[in-house]
Design goal:
- By secondary structure, this protein is mainly α.
- It has a domain at about 35-100: 5' to 3' exonuclease, C-terminal subdomain (DNA polymerase, domain 1), CATH 1.10.150.20.
- Helices cover about 50% and strands about 0% of the residues.
- The protein contains 4 helices and no strands.
- It starts with a helix and ends in a 7-residue tail after the last helix.
Length: about 110
């Protein structure tokens, strides 16, 4: 027969496992939302409206009055994450677009 302490320990282990699984799924979810920009010819002079970004990602840039991809060199990823309606998925999308244009921003 299982004791109360063993039962509570088992519940604790299950809860920790559940938390780890949730964290892993969140990481996978971020990686699954990948938009392919390889078919576009992007550079720092490309207008952000011509990049094929999602509406949410584009709105983040437009709220900053950014017209060209090169203007994002002045920003850090952490700055973009602080903006209203910006999240990891949108910022990762912007980062991938920038990478395709040969631009890398700091974390």
């Amino acid at each position: 027969m299982i004791t109360e302490t063993e039962f509570l320990n088992a519940i604790n282990v299950i809860n920790k496992y559940k938390q780890q699984i949730t964290e892993q799924l969140e990481k996978i979810k971020i990686n699954l939302v990948e938009i392919d920009f390889s078919h576009l010819s992007l550079d720092e002079n490309t207008n952000v409206r011509d990049c094929g970004l999602s509406k949410r990602a584009l709105n983040i840039l437009l709220c900053l009055d950014i017209e060209k991809l090169g203007e994002l060199k002045e920003f850090k990823k952490s700055d973009l994450l602080k903006l209203r309606n910006s999240g990891k998925v949108s910022i990762n999308e912007i980062e991938k677009c920038l990478f395709q244009a040969g631009i890398v921003i700091d974390a």
